[in-house]
Amino acid sequence: LAGLETFDDDQQRPVVISGQSGKPSDIPPEERKPVKTPEAERLLQEAEEVEMEAVGVKKVGYEIEKVIEELEYEMDLAARNLQFEKAAVIRDNIADLKKRLNGQ
Description:
The protein has about 100 residues and is mostly helical. Helix content is about 55%, strand content about 10%. It has helices at about 40-55, 60-80, 85-100; strands at about 5-10, 15-20, 25. The model is unreliable at about 1-10 (pLDDT under 50).
């Protein structure tokens, strides 16, 4: 039953049955991260290369954009958990990366 999605009758939201216990996962959907297999990693790498070629972005810039996306996720998560100081530090790091990306 691991990974099976069902609906919580009380909150009317999807829940995922976790592990072998068969109990709903306590991790909200927006905080779940997928397990990456070697095949998934290879396909992701190929997709990133196609995307970089299509939009004409150099690999370094593309990687910085991916780091920024991950930091934005972490900043949002910190803010939702009322860790505002952590969110502010991450925000400043994002601003620095964006300046570097734009060559300023």
